[in-house]
Amino acid sequence: MLAAIGAYVEAQVGRVTVRLPKALAEAALAAWDRDELGELGEETREQYALRGRAAELALIGLAISDRGCWVDDELVVDLDVAVAGAALRASQ
Length: 92
Prior knowledge:
The chain has 4 helices and 3 strands. Helix 2 (22-33) crosses helix 3 and helix 3 packs across helix 4. A hairpin with a 2-residue loop joins strand 2 and strand 3 (74-80). The mean pLDDT is 91. By secondary structure, it is of the alpha+beta class. A 3-stranded antiparallel beta sheet has the order 1-3-2.
């Protein structure tokens, strides 16, 4: 049921415009630019969840790289609603 609601929300919203302070925008860009070297071994649930959050952060960095623009001391970028939602969930 939640997934079905999500599909309707995404069709209506798609992207949401957010403003990020410089330090957060630069951290997201660094996550996108980071190279993953080596193979993944077995992970604990916590490591798996942390890697998932790192991937969401990198996707924000990609969005910043592709379509972000600086307005004064903030970065303005349109984020996919799912990525913005992941950031919201991480803050709770």
